[in-house]
Amino acid sequence: MADADNHANCPMDPLLRAVTGRWTTYILWRLVQEGSLRFGELMGLVPSISAKVLADRLRMLERNDLLIRTQKDTIPPEVSYELTEDEKALHASLKGLHMIALDWRARVAIGRRFSRNHRHRCA
């Protein structure tokens, strides 16, 4: 039970849960790369995502104060999404994590190739 209490007190846990869901990290990355985007533009940039899932993820990011949703009173309404200042501050940390992830992915791929090539050589 003590481990559960410690887990609940971890200040990083809620933030990491907010930014690491399926599609969520990729959506944030696209907004970092492109800046403010309309819904249709995001649909085109996020492969294989449904409109419903994209809308759900955008709502969740907005609820967590990571996105700003701006709607213009035009016909049809023009809705765009951009990162909040909090998310822009988080970007520096995510950029560092991005570099670590690239290095990790390369090491894992090398390890898998080595393992595959040397699988049957153990005595």
Please tell me about this protein's structure.
With 123 residues, the protein is mainly alpha-helical. 64% of the residues lie in helices and 11% in strands. The chain contains six helices and three strands; from the N terminus they run αααβααββα. Strands 1-3-2 form a three-stranded antiparallel sheet. The longest helix has 33 residues. It is globular and about 55 Å long. The chain starts with a helix and ends in a 6-residue tail after the last helix. The mean pLDDT is 82.
**Biggest beta sheet summary:** 3 strands, antiparallel
Percent in strands: 5-15%
Main-sheet strand order equals 1-3-2
Specify the number of helices: 6
Helicity level: 55-70%
Secondary-structure-derived class: mainly alpha
Shape field: globular
> Average pLDDT, to the nearest integer?
82
- Give me the Rg, rounded: 19 Å
> What's the helix-strand series?
HHHEHHEEH
